[in-house]
Amino acid sequence: MKQQVTAIGVAIVTVLSCPGLAAQSPEIVPALMPAVGQEVRITEASGPIREGILRAVTTESVRAEGAGGREFSVATGSVKLVERRGDSLKNGIVTGALIGLGMSVLSLQGYDSGGKAAAGIGAGMAISMLVGARIDAGKVGWTRVYPPTSATRQ
User: Is the confidence at residue 38, as pLDDT, over 60?
Assistant: First the structure.
């Protein structure tokens, strides 16, 4: 335990004593980017915003096909923000499951039949998961994928 605390302390001191290190943007990780073929909006550090269909992501560049079928590439060091159209259903399903679990447990307080109570909890969670997924499916705006938020970091 003491070694872990020491290692964390050294890491914090290193980051605080090197301001350039703390100011750097997180590295673009291709696995965290949208799937090839999804609609994306890329904001460059110098200001321009480009929209297109994602074609490739590497550690060196993000490549997409813009209007009129013209491909463009942005160096990863120049990327300020990447967004994709729509929202992932995963967070809606998870949120729905948790809300359904809580509401089902509260509504079945004092119910003495274990099997029926478990079935009621399962049904409540399933319904809430479907509602959460439906809410997320209806989102038509843009979802930020880079730089990662606490919800997208893995």
Answer: yes
